[in-house]
Here is the input.
Amino acid sequence: MNGSAPHESLRGEKDARQNGHEEPDAGEDGNDQEVIVIQDTGFTVKICAPGIEPFSLQVSPQEMVQEIHQVLMDREDTCHRTCFSLQLDGNVLDNFAELKTIEGLQEGSLLKVVEEPYTVREARIHVRHIRDLLKSLDPSDAFNGVDCNSLSFLSVFTEGDLGDSGKRKKKGTEMEQIDCTPPEHILPGSKERPLCALQPQNRDWKPLQCLKVLTMSGWNPPPGNRKMHGDLMYLYVITVEDRHVSITASTRGFYLNQSTAYNFNPKPANPSFLSHSLVELLNQISPTFKKNFSALQKKRVQRHPFERIATPFQVYSWTAPQAEHAMDCVRAEDAYTSRLGYEEHIPGQTRDWNEELQTTRELPRKNLPERLLRERGVHSDFTAAATRGAMAVIDGNVMAINPSEETKMQMFIWNNIFFSLGFDVRDHYKDFGGDVAAYVAPTNDLNGVRTYNAVDVEGLYTLGTVVVDYRGYRVTAQSIIPGILEREQEQSVIYGSIDFGKTVVSHPKYLELLEKTSRPLKIQKHKVLNDKNEEVELCSSVECKGIIGNDGRHYILDLLRTFPPDLNFLPVEGEEMPEECKKMGFPKQHRHKLCCLRQELVDAFVEHRYLLFMKLAALQLMQQKANKQESSGALENGASPENGTAESEKSESDDGKIDDNVTGLDQVKELAETIASDDGTVDPKSREVIRNACKAVGSISDTSFDIRFNPDIFSPGVRFPESSKEEVQDQKQLLKDAAAFLLSCQIPGLVKDCLDHTVLPMDGATLAEAMHQRGINMRYLGKVINFITKTPGRAQLDHIFKIGISELITRSAKHIFKTYLQGVELSGLSAAISHFLNCFLSSFPNPIAHLPADELVSKKKNKKRKNRNLGNADNTAWASMTPQELWKNICSEAKNYFDFSLECENADQAAEVYNLQKITLLREISLKTGVQILLKEYNFDNRHKPTFTEEDILNIFPVVKHVNPKASDAFHFFQSGQAKVQQGFLKEGCELINEALNLFNNVYGAMHVEICACLRLLARLNYIMGDYSEALSNQQKAVLMSERVLGIEHPNTIQEYMHLALYCFANSQLSTALNLLYRARYLMLLVFGEDHPEMALLDNNIGLVLHGVMEYDLSLRFLENALAISSKYHGSKSLKVALSHHLVARVYESKAEFRSALQHEKEGYTIYKNQLGEHHEKTKESSEYLKYLTQQAVALQRTMNEIYKNGSNANIMPLKFTAPSMASILEQLNIINGILFIPLSQKDLENLKAEVQRRQQLQESIKSKEKKHKGSPSDAAGGQQEAAG
Here is the structure.
């Protein structure tokens, strides 16, 4: 479509390189060659395995030999082999060698699969692999949250007919076969919110049974003399035919022996069926196994790979069906040995996590392939191990390293990871809020680690850190600095302070390393006084500690105050806060003194100040110029910075000045650069301009713009030397300004974005994300809701208000639940959780908790036994909670923490007053606390019996926070791709995004949130460029990935379903498209309810598809609902509403109800006329359509009159009733989904691009307060405005 000239596309590549990077790193120019390295051409080798025909395999030179192993272990015909080597001309290939390093390996080489003798380790791997193959379709691991399995339901709704190419198995295109009526609960207006539909039963889940039992035999381990015969271990199997057999795993393979359950006889049976693979052996002794195992593998390989691949981090499901508990040897064995990752099949072999994490940081990073290798990392393994360890610690299965101390004080080491509990040990946080501070410190520290990792300074190391919340406790897991356990902390810390600023030390090497982080992190180097009144220089907050490990690396830890304090929540004696803060009731005493501003806020604030700086300087330069012209040089009232600020706010409003201003800004930029480069050429007046501007915005330098924060300001116990008094004053002012900026810019900005629907949160998590992106902490949630209630367009923010309130309630409930759980011992867990949920959500007025039955409590309780429980001594206090008490606590928590007054005394009032759904509250509280409940229909409103019983609580999972490594190069490609697409260079955009996808795959593996965004954008581009089947295939991947990585009902997944439905429709898979839209609607009802702006889009989609299949009445129900919602959220005069009227009118036309059609089209016409004027093409189109409808109506009336007059022998002109064409429906679908096809000539395109670029430059210069949005622009549903414009 565009960019057809070859030089054009080349130029595109170069531009992308320049635009894509905010700060071009060294070595970026190498990008062009680098790209080629990745796409090294693949070649084909022949594989020859025992017992099957040789086959070809496509490989790439980058791959390791090991990856071919993996492929063979996954292929249907070779999946039962695990213990083999690959040989080329009789030479065994090294597993970890890259293919390109192997001599003689080339296109067409023959690789032989050679069976190798087993060891105990190999035998265990083999049995585990066979078990995995037997359970490959069984979802229990996903429900149990094990091994990075997670759920996906897409195939249930597409019935597997998306195929590889998206071509449908044609069943004839008659419409009649499609049953379009959705289940009752999906129709507009339905109040029912069933839960069971969330996880529909998948046909493949009733797996074909291959064996009754496969387990380790009780005769393990083999006695000495049998070891010397090569016995490695014994298995016990019961076949489906009910044959009980005992199997020996030996170095040569598997065979039947003569043992029984009670009698050990290791001699081979006759026949012994010795086979190298367990599957081959079982095939021979059980016909059912042979038949079902091969059928199972056929099914397994037919599933989409994205349904099978492990996710990088565990996703937990908050509901699960009742599962039969089956015998499973591997799980049983895992439970008793510590399996800490795939490598350690033998207990005692633990990984040195710290070494692995730090080594990846040290890998070279000069060019792309090197950076990719670096970023691959061991992160997900570490997170998984840390999570298992934290759970083991809380469940009491790990011995403390200081067992004699009180339980709260204990620390643990497990699998080379250090665990500590979130309590205030040794009054460390006494001045900061005690236990409350100790609870938030780990997450603050984690944010610090994330930030320093992102800056990535060579030679500076952080610890692997994971924070796990489980059963009411917070556990921090950290990798261990080599040698730290042998030394006292006092002697190891050579930088920073271990007592919050009494004794402080510094170190030149640390200052040098931290100096490199100070600019990106906006941290100011500063001096503090220690207890001996000596000045010590730091470049971080005092409690950031530097320790050199025995490995010689410089580690920094305790990064909990990397970011400046939030003064709105830190009242300080004698400090006056700005007006904006006081108006909103700040400063407010918080529970702890560790409230920090978020990094996003700091960045936004600095950017805001930068624009202000540029404007002030430009204004002064212009005034100088004007003065020069007037009085040739006499400077009249050189604008002082103060009134400069006031003027700059105004100067933008009158358009006349803008053009001057643009040039003015350019001048300032040039000037600032010249001064910064310390050039003697600048005249003093101009220097003065820059100096004034610097002073006005609080820059720490007076020759260039540079804003930094001192994180120690207002820190209890930190003192500053007399010499830096003025600097400290400036810093205090800066912090006050930042706190005010959050209230006066960021919160109103967020609400404005919600009003414009550029931000569309659908549940608590997406609202939190939207707040965080703008640097607003969750503790401001009450203020955000209050701000919404005072906003003029209040009704258009209903959805945000509702999400805000439900988030407020569930977060307050979570705080209470946390302490509640700490008093519960393991045996009472399900009773306690179900009691809490009853008090929280059930209408039953007085639920009674069931204490664990007496027969389980030993009568001869030992009075002296030390209380092992971490909580209070009384372990039954939780049972006395009542709904009244809980809701009273929720309201006071909301008031104390969020400063918001809730008007409800129980769940029913909350649901009524705020129009909340109890099922939504249940989802939110379960996700926040890690509770998993049984999938069934809950009756919340029964006043005669409680909603939950203890049988309904299936599990409690950890809630895990970790650092997610960033694929920086891939991300740059992705952003440049997005930018290209916005400028209309689709083809180049497409190439860049494909490249990004390639890199993401290299770093993250196949599954990741960011890959999901990549696939979605690619699919959209494929679609716009007319490649529907490719669009379908990419979007299918995006849906599967979103289900697997984010969750089956995550708002993102709902959106992906909608996109997929559109592409299905375009591929004329109508019934599939409807199924997908119905699924999306069900999920949205469950997650939020009906009254959401996104529901209007969804219902328009459903209505259009139904119109296309001639289900007119049903179609109207959805379209009229969409019209009502659009009118509410976009205002009844908006273009979206006009379009909605038109869609409704078209359906009435198809029904030949012309009066109603006319009525709606007139409404639409009026809106177009008022908004766009008489002569706009939309208005003209509408007016044409009105004429046509009127003619039809008249014709119909004539015919009716004829019939009345002449009875049955009237000669009737046949009326034209036409079903809408698919093309016209598709056209409307594209319009409402904001997809534009622009048929333009090459010349138009050139002009358009030039225009776009000109506008962008203009925009850049005026962009004063507009913070850049991070969302992907192509997805903003603003398509109608463009379509209408």
Observations:
- The chain has a mean pLDDT of 83.
- The longest strand covers residues 231-239.
